[in-house]
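#struct-help
A.M.: can someone run this one for me? Single chain, 215 residues.
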Amino acid sequence: MQTLKIIIADDHPLFRGALVQTLQAMAEDVTIIECGEFSAALKAADAHPDADLMLLDLAMPGVSGFSGLMTLRAQFSALPIVIVSATDDSGTVRRSIELGASGFIPKSSGLDDIRMAVKTVLDGGIFSPGSDTSQPEDDPMLIEILDRLKTLTPQQNRVLTMLAEGLLNKQIAYELGVSEATIKAHVSAILLKLNVDSRTQAVIKLGKINMAMVA
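D.P.: on it. Structure tokens below:
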């Protein structure tokens, strides 16, 4: 590969710097876009539709848990996303892949492992450390929530993550450039798919996935 464009979304400058140095050797022409908060990552993905890959931390300003991954997957379905996180238990790795990540790199990984992971994803594969994703989810509640989340459309995913941020229907409509009636229809569909009666309950279900990451 002669050229490479990668977005690094992580709020730790020193770690971003280490990733930049690691990735610079992977192609003759490497462009790195660095983002220290989630809103910047969204803007970078939008501004660089030709990006080959995004490396995303699960916990950074503006987002926590899997909400960021879900938002990016919904909004930029063609962009491969690799999670880079200090929380690297088997459950977090597995759920990241199930929610659409193309790979998972523990922050404790060596330089060669990071390059191998990136190359695997750039070649169209899925990378996970060891055999973490081979173990099935063992919590029936989380299995149900994950299965229901997977039934959401990309736009419904975006609406749900905005609900989790505390935005009102009017604010979500403005952000997405649609009518408030359209957002109300999306919320109704989300409640039906998640088998809940209110937007608060929907946000709680999403929160259970994020809480499982740090449990």
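A.M.: thanks! Strands lie at 3-9, 29-35, 53-56, 81-85, 103-106.
D.P.: also worth noting: The radius of gyration is 17 Å.
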